[in-house]
Amino acid sequence: MFEVEDTDNLARTGRLRVQHGVLETPTIFPVHDLGSEGGWNTPRYWEKFPQINTAMFNAALLSLNRRGILGSLLRIGIHQFIRFFGVAFVDSGGFLYRKYRLALKPEKVLEIQEKIGADIASTLDYPINCKTLTENDKILRTVSNAKIAASARKNLKMLLYASINGYDPAIIRNVIRHLKKHGEFDGFAIGSLMPRYSNYRFLVDALLAAKLEADQMPIHVYGLGSPVIVHLLIYMGVDSFDSSFFIVASSKRTYAIPGFRRIEFKNMHKYLDEIHCECPICKTTSLQELKKSRNLLSLHNVWVLWNEIQQMKTAIREGWVEKYLEKRLSKTKWAKKAFEYAKRRIRFRFTGD
Questions:
Q1: Inter-residue contact 214 to 63 (CB < 8 Å)
Q2: Of the given ranges (133-137, 233-237, 285-289, 328-332), which has the lowest mean pLDDT?
Q3: pLDDT for the residue 259
Q4: Could you tell me the pTM of the whole model?
Q5: What pLDDT, in 10s, does the model give residues 96-145?
Q6: Can you give the chain as a three-state secondary structure string?
Q7: Cβ 234 vs Cβ 222: under 8 Å
Q8: Model pLDDT, residue 351
Q9: Has residue 353 got a pLDDT over 70?
Q10: Backbone angles phi, psi at 164, to 5 degrees
Q11: CB 242 within 8 Å of CB 222
Q12: Which pLDDT score is estimated for 199?
């Protein structure tokens, strides 16, 4: 189902065959808030930008059945329900199961994912906060849930990713190695990285561990999808990630500038010379109009994310990823340090230098 096309170090492009077409990787799954308390706040970006044909949904939110939508979703599927015909990734929503104290079993979560027509589903996990070494029980329960889902799945056309959580790279490698032997999965989804993502050494080591053990299988990363970090994820061999950045940033009236900088509109006057956005929104909308419209600003921000990924794909195909990143990350201190560390780790692992 997954075909690697081009590689440059660990970074790669590929094609993943799913029920609703072919997914070109690396790619982003913009988070759709269907089922949340606010509900329906996600702009229909796929209508404005048909090339962005991916979306991330949350099974936990949908199971809450706010506005009584779950029955319709189970009957006609999520694609028909919101008129979205791209690739739907339905996350189990482990974090929200804990928040709302839900008691659904992994088999029930899988049933919801299958019946609403998920192209890709992830197994029920129990996220950890990465601040203590006393969360082994959550890791074991997450592993058990993955194996239960692998045995219970009925729709083999729906891809099933095993969710992995770990506060240590060795745990991530051991869990992936174990699940490869004890379940049939189509990929792995790595979670619980958000609490420690600012520790770039941990993040790089964790991703490298996942990549080395997963080998050619697709890797998804939960929740890390800002314009700064997507380049590092792709460089480390991650194939997909989800992001609510475009919605959160727009609610704070924050404008993403291609090339990493993001600024609040109250400070916009300081950076007018840097704003040269070619997105369809900015070409037809003034900055004052963008400031007033959360919807338009969300569309701009999601386009910036998608465009950054397209540029990385070009760099991979042409074999100059490291040169591209050296230039692209030069003005962002954290990202520059993370990239330099990642480069050293990869070279040591594969060349011994």
A1: no
A2: 133-137
A3: 67
A4: 0.93
A5: 777 777 777 899 999 999 999 999 999 999 877 655 555 678 888 899 99
A6: CEEEEEEECCEEEEEEEECCEEEEECEEEEECCCCCCCCCCCCCHHHHCCCCCEEEEEHHHHHCCHHHCHHHHHHHCHHHHHCCCCEEEEECCHHHHHHCCCCCCHHHHHHHHHHCCCCEEECCCCCCCCCCCCCHHHHHHHHHHHHHHHHHCCCCCCEEEEEEECCCHHHHHHHHHHHHHCCCCCEEEEECCHHHCCCHHHHHHHHHHHHHHHCCCCEEECCCCCCCCHHHHHHCCCCEEEECHHHHHHHCCEEECCCCCEEEHHHHHHCHHHCCCCCHHHHHCCHHHHHHCHHHHHHHHHHHHHHHHHHHHHHHHHCCHHHHHHHHCCCCHHHHHHHHHHHHHHHHHHHCC
A7: no
A8: 54
A9: no
A10: -125, 130
A11: yes
A12: 87
Statement: residue 223 has pLDDT above 80: yes
What type of residue is 137?
D
Residue 51 tokens, joined: 């090339």
Q: Are 185 and 140 in contact (CB under 8 A)?
A: no
